[in-house]
Amino acid sequence: MKKIICKEFGPVDNLVWEDTEDHEPLPNEVVVDIKAAALNFPDYLIVQGLYQFQPPLPFTPGNEGAGIIKKIGSEVTKHKVGDRVSFMSAIGAFAEEMVLDQNLVFKMQDDMSFEVASSYQLAYGTSYHALVQRGNLSKDDEVLVLGGSGGVGLAAIDIAKALGARVVAAVSSQEKAQICSDYGADDIVLYGSSKLEKEQQKTFTSELKAKSIKGGFDLIYDPIGDCFAEPSFRSIGWGGRYLVIGFAAGEIPKLPLNLTLLKGASIVGVFWGTFTALEPETNKNNIKKLNQMVTDGKIKPLISQTIPMKDAISAINLIGNRGVTGKVVLVNNEE
User: Fold this and answer.
1) Residue range 190-207: mean pLDDT, rounded
2) What is the residue-averaged pLDDT of the chain?
């Protein structure tokens, strides 16, 4: 059995694709023959020691996937050998097989592909939790999504539109703008591919406000941070909620807190990993709702590329260089 291994925190190129022993399950565990695993931006951070959570070394990155159960432990009651399943885990998915607690594994819809099943739990789970539980989204809300063409950004657009909100997406290029438009965004703002200087930030704020039919957004979904955060916050409406998802653009931003006072606005943190650990039943219900929305065609996860699992190192570099739209899925091809 082969898997990607991070032996020390550092550059992505230090990862290795290496043979290891096959897994044997403990009584409450299952072994999944992994067919597909989705790539997420935290995979790029965690191998460098830059993520909020740092696993003990050595470890295998990757936290969502899908496959077929090949072995079960003696006390497993929820699954059987041969079940098609998707799964979530803090680490371990970039491999040919993985051992998991039976409660972390979910049966797939019969007509769903492994690629789709692996691709939406983290991005859509994060975005659903952010918009619904943390942002109290309503159909009357107007939502600004920064980094709209990325995995979580597109998920936020998809979910917000499915729930009836108006959505403006902010992206770096015209190509990404088209993707967001195709996904249902009502309007687009381009911020370019370079860091914004002070005058450019003022222009960005003006452009955002001009796109809001209310003169300010009810919800701002921000997975990128850096120099884009403050000018975006300045476009928030009265009583708005600013959702802090992550910092994909680089630096963790600082905001003048007087802006929250003037806008009567809230800055709301979103850390899906801790949420799933502390509120597992709420998360389970979220995933059920998302599964139904996928089945009903209300949301449609975008898989932009499939790449062989053995090439995960180049794929992780790709997402780190912001060269990804939608979701990249790593696949273990049949020999």
Assistant:
1) 93
2) 93
| Residue 334 pLDDT > 70 | no
Was domain 2-119+302-331 assigned CATH 3.90.180.10? yes
Provide φ and ψ at 85, rounded to 5°: -140, 155
What would be the CATH architecture of the domain defined by 122-273? Alpha-Beta Complex (3.90)
Q: At residue 80, what is the residue type?
A: K
Would you list the domain boundaries of the chain?
2-119+302-331, 122-273
Angle between helices 121-128 and 280-295 (to 10 degrees): 110
Instruction: Specify the pTM.
Output: 0.81
| C-alpha separations of 287 from 13, 290, 306 in Å | 33, 5, 23
Alpha carbons 116 and 132: distance in angstroms, whole number: 23
Q: Regarding predicted confidence, which is higher, 287 or 9? A: 9
Q: How far is CA 171 from CA 181, 200, 264, 306, 325, in A?
A: 11, 15, 27, 23, 11
**In the numeric block, which tokens belong to residue 19?**
């043979």
The 3-state DSSP class for residue 111 equals: coil
User: Can 2-119+302-331 and 122-273 be said to share one CATH topology?
Assistant: yes
